[in-house]
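Review form for a predicted model. The reviewer records the input and the model, then writes brief findings.
Reviewer: anonymous (R2)
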Amino acid sequence: MRSKWTLILGTVLIALAACWQTVAAAAPRPAGQPVVLVIGDSLSAGYGLETGAGWVSLLQKRLQERNAPWRVVNASISGETTAGGMSSLPALLQRDQPKVVIIELGGNDALRGLSLAATESNLRSMASACEMFGARVLLIGMRIPPNYGPAYTRGFEAIFPRVARLQHTALVPFLLSGVVGHPDWFQADNIHPTAAAQATMLDTVWPVLEPMLRLQAGKR
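Model under review:
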């Protein structure tokens, strides 16, 4: 009998803990520094890297070194798709109240061979939601290997500049543009960059992001 009630009590406590985590995640954070929200996949989540070694963490360090007022919130999840990002976005906007949103998604859509039209629609919906919220968007593009076929490969690459043009967002055409020429900068899976590549990834994003931060920081 004791084991039965112990099991029931444990189940209840787990459920209560889950509810508390949901409420805490949805609760707005205290007002303070303006927020840069990063919604990405494993490339921004720092897959296979030590904590603090990813390009998003390096972005926060660079901002601190330059006494910039921004706080970076990294909501990236390894394996995330544009559909997952679109589902998570409303709660993240409410929770973090960002002034700038960096969207680095789409690579996992392509690796799974998902519909290009759906990927584009999801990215456009995310950009629209951020705009309605009053946040500027930086869209980060991705490319895929040619083994998916030339039509799919070209179609995927074309999504990002088209979304940026139609939604009036800023654009980094290819996050790994300075990395692909260094095969030794990739982990054993030949997909995820090592720690050695992260500063270059940040330097690829920075020239587009930094003017946005200066502009948005002046808006109160």
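Findings: The longest strand covers residues 35-40.
Further findings: Confidence is low (pLDDT under 50) at residues 1-30.
Recommendation: see findings above.
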